[in-house]
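Today's session is about reading a structure prediction critically. Students often jump straight to the picture, but the first step is always the sequence itself: look for stretches that repeat, for charged clusters, for runs of hydrophobic residues. Only then move on to the predicted structure, which in these notes is written as discrete structure tokens rather than atom positions. Here is the chain we will use throughout the hour.
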Amino acid sequence: MDDRTTKSRIRDAAIHRFGEVGFERATIREIAADADVSPGLVLHHFGSKAGLREACDEHVVASFGASRAEMVETGTTDPFATLAALREEEPHLRYLMRALRDGSPAAARLFDEVVRESEAMTALGVEAGILRPSEHPHDQAVLLVAWQFGALALAEHMARGFGVEPFSDEMTARVGRAALEVLSHGVFADTRYEDAWRRLDEAADVTPADAAEGESE
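Below is the predicted structure for this chain, in token form.
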């Protein structure tokens, strides 16, 4: 195999290993064995375990961005194709979940990168007419990513609530169905809560000087 293929194989093995046992517990020797290469070759390509993790972070973020861009560009609505794509992403989901548990600087950097990717994908979806435009696109991206990451961190608890195995096909289907219902139709029956929040925002924008001027008039 050429260097590119070998390097990719090492990276993918590391994503699996980091996702299963965490960054601290995973060893270069184990990752090398998983990729069927020597430990020296791992260090040759990535320099250190930290360098390998950085490469994994970049690949996971880029893969998420690419897969979602493809869905937006193709207008994919086939649930079977979506489920198949999610199953392929399972190692990346486990990797993200483990990064959250580790609570490391790398996890914070990963969160920020996914937010940037999500904001870009949201803008693409708005242009394609798939998503509604938001008055606060960055804030919306932060919230949605936090929801997704929170669901990953609580995957075992969610699975128990559903009565299924974590990351099983049944769990993926039930999570997807519930999420799409919420995102497509919302939960609230009207806008009373949004209206109340807007009034609060408007009141917060009024300075004491503005209030005094209004009273004098």
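Discussion point for the tutorial: The longest helix spans residues 49-74.
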